[in-house]
Every structure is written in C-alpha cells, then in structure tokens.
Specification:
alpha/beta, GMP Synthetase, Chain A, domain 3, 2 domains, 3-stranded mixed sheet, 23% strand, binds zinc ion
Length: 172
C-alpha cells in the first residue's frame, strides 16, 4: 500500500526526518499521518487494501475523508465488507473520494447513491465561485447527509455547494 508517508513510518508510527519536515511545512497533515498508520495495519492482512494508494486523509466535522485512486474507489463501491472494515479501523464514518476525478465527478460521488441531475458552476458578483447541484430525490428521503457533503466539498476541493432537490423545486 502506498501512503503520503513512507511505509516504514506508517508501520512504525514514527516519522522519518523527511516526512517530519513535510509535516512542518504543511504539505503533509496530522490527518494524513493518522490515515496512513491506521490503514497500513489493515493492508498487512488484506490483499485488496494492500494494493491501494492513499493520497490524502482529512477529518471533516467528525467524519474521515480518504482520497484514493479511482480504481481503489471502484473496488470499495463493490465491496461493502471492505468499507465497514476500514470504517471500523478508522473508528468513524469514512467517505471515499477519487483523486483523479473532475469536480463534477467528485460531487457526484459524494452524493452517491443519490442521482445528480445537473451541476452548474457560476460566479457571484462578489467574485465567489458557486456550484449549484440539482438532485433527483426529495430531501426527506435522502440517505445522504447533505450538510456533510457541503462541508467535505469545501474542505477537499474548496467548492461552495448549493443543493436543490427537483421535487422541492416543483412545489414552489
Ligand atoms: Zn518518511
């Protein structure tokens, strides 16, 4: 398994001078280190996880976001057992995000399994970029925490998300 820190560091839990310097300069975060050390423990016992490439780990409002290669996220989408194994190891809910994804695909995967009907990027007069997303289902039935999705989009890609539901729109 590849992680943002050396695999020796991830296994020992102690950072080498090079990784320590990265942490000090901010190119590496404490969350990256935590995700790497926790996941490497699973990788030893799990062939699938051992093939993963962890790009980044970030804690967002009580959940953990793991940024992985698209192929890794595909494996996880088809393997619920693997997902719960990782969530158990991390000790909290985990969101899996593809590193190579476009902003549109990134947003779609956060809303999964909700269907995203449209994604529009636009600029406000104050020069803030906003991203408006229209979702097919009604908010009440959503199995996805919309507030969390907005926070993750902001934390991982600096995307300001405006979410609308198609059914709600019709009522107006
Ligand atoms: Zn290192």
């Amino acid at each position: 398994m590849k992680t943002p820190i050396c695999s020796f560091d991830a296994k020992s839990g102690v950072l080498c001078r090079k990784c320590e310097a990265k942490l000090k300069s901010g190119s590496l975060t404490q969350d990256d280190v935590e995700a790497a050390t926790k996941l490497i423990g699973l990788a030893d016992r799990d062939q699938e996880i051992n093939k993963f490439t962890l790009v980044r780990g970030t804690r967002v409002h009580g959940d953990f976001v793991l940024v992985l290669r698209s192929s890794d996220v595909s494996v996880l989408r088809g393997n619920k057992e693997l997902v719960s194994k990782i969530e158990k190891q991390m000790g909290q809910k985990v969101w899996f995000v593809e590193t190579e994804a476009s902003d549109r695909r990134f947003i779609e995967s956060l809303f999964h399994p909700l269907k995203v009907l449209s994604v529009n990027f636009f600029w406000l007069p104050e020069a803030n970029k906003l991203t408006k997303v229209i979702i097919a289902e009604d908010a009440q039935n959503a199995p996805v925490n919309i507030d969390k999705v907005q926070k993750i989009a902001k934390a991982i890609r600096n995307i300001e998300l405006l979410v609308e539901f198609k059914n709600n729109q019709k009522r107006i």
